[in-house]
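pasting for ref
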Amino acid sequence: MNRDKYKNKTDQAWKHLYARLENDGLLENAPNPKPSYIAVKWLVAAAAVVLAVVITLPYLKSEIGFKPLISQSNDVAGSTLVKTLDDGSIIYLTSAAIMRYPLHFGSSERKIQLRGEALFDITHDVRRPFRIDTRDVTIQVLGTCFNVKCVEGKPFELGVYRGAVRVTDKHDGTVTLVRAGQTVIRDNGRMVLGNNPPRDSLSRYNSNIRFKDETLANIIRVINRNNGQYDLKATPSAARRRLTATFAADTPPAMASLLSQALHLEMSVEGRIITIK
């Protein structure tokens, strides 16, 4: 079929359809449309483009590894908000700190964003480096414990309690390796490494802690990590329960008692082992 014959047939089909709609009273007073072959061709092309975009977007999303970020902030003065991430890493956010992170980390790296001050206790995973993006530097670790201060209007500061951390200055590309017992400060546009331990002890981050919609298993894990006298446990069904709780310099037995009461569960003590069930 040649192009002219196809055009004539198309025009005729449009006219027949219009006449039928008009006879059935489905059209208001409107001019008799005469869509041309070119108009039809462009409509088909536009539809094809839209379809291609719809099909391509999910593919691109998976290819570039895009993951929507969750924002977690601590808006309670004088407290530390404790958050356990997908990989088991524990983050202690001080007042006014904001962290953005994916619900689930990818297979090649673990990456978050931080503004403010926080303590990091990172789960070791050699296949997936843990990266922290701040305003002035990028931090990379495998598994370690360190604190970060990136407060607006103050010099960047990082201190390592355990392991080692690599800090890259975003402005000039300077890379500094900070080991356990060392501190690095970025002041006046340059990184200064000092062989002195972090000024803040770990107890500062644990004296007044909050948990927001955390599982009992994660809360118990944090409590056990910060005390050496008791071993808190929970039955499988109890461990999955979620709650929001605040502790101010409480002992592990007192914390366990508060947790069991909040969840309407029982608590048993056998020597140094405390079980919530």
